[in-house]
């Protein structure tokens, strides 16, 4: 039996509850597609990625990008740190056609190996979503409940640590 990588990586649990995926998510940094649990260097993440969502025709989607390990995995006191929030993304359209509510902030982990998660929700209606007043201590569950976004339709994550850090996993 194959284990769900979102459960193994604790994305399900730390950020969202279990859900059945009903869409496809492609995230590309400089034309390199991330795979769930892949490791990327901060220098590869400076520019916002290209994101495409394939799901229910004619739908609009909301994407949340968070770091549940901020400022460090051993003390995630700023969990979840909001790196990006985009709404009204058209199905099969590039994320640039959506409404950027919170501008992309590139990952720059200071200590430990951080998980950076992309969580996508299908919007039931087009609505105004406001930027939170801060990035630290964002709560995806509270956010989705407040805006009636229901369960996620797809999620992915990658790992990242400070370049040149000692110990931990090595980049290939």
Helix percent reads: under 10%
Summed up, the helix count is 3
Radius of gyration: 15 Å
Structural class: mainly beta
Largest sheet: 6 strands, mixed
Unreliable residue runs: 167-172
Label the overall shape: globular
Describe what this molecule looks like in 3D:
- It is a single chain.
- The protein is mainly beta.
- It is built from 3 helices and 9 strands.
- It has helices at residues 5-8, 11-14, 140-146, and strands spanning 24-29, 32-33, 38-39, 50-54, 60-67, 81-90, 99-102, 114-123, 154-160.
- A 6-stranded mixed β-sheet has the order 3-9-8-5-6-7, with no helix packed on it. A 3-stranded antiparallel β-sheet has the order 2-1-4, with no helix packed on it.
- The chain is globular, with a radius of gyration of 15 Å.
- 33% of the residues are buried.
- The model is unreliable at 167-172 (pLDDT under 50).
Can I get a quick summary?
This protein has 172 residues and is mainly β. 9% of the residues lie in helices and 31% in strands.
């Amino acid at each position: 039996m194959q284990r769900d990588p979102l459960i193994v990586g604790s994305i399900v649990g730390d950020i969202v509850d279990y859900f059945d995926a009903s869409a496809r998510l492609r995230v590309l940094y400089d034309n390199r597609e991330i795979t769930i649990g892949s490791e990327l260097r901060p220098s590869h993440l400076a520019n916002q990625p290209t994101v495409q969502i394939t799901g229910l025709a004619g739908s609009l989607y909301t994407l949340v990008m968070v770091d549940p390990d901020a400022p460090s995995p051993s003390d995630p006191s700023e969990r979840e740190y909001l790196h990006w929030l985009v709404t009204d993304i058209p199905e099969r359209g590039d994320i640039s056609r959506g409404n950027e509510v919170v501008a992309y902030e590139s990952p720059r982990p200071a200590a430990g190996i951080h998980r950076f998660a992309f969580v996508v929700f299908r919007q039931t209606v087009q609505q105004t979503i406001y930027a939170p007043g801060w990035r630290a201590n964002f709560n995806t569950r509270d956010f989705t409940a407040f805006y009636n976004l229901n369960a996620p339709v797809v999620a992915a994550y990658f790992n990242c640590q400070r370049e040149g850090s000692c110990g931990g996993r090595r980049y290939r």
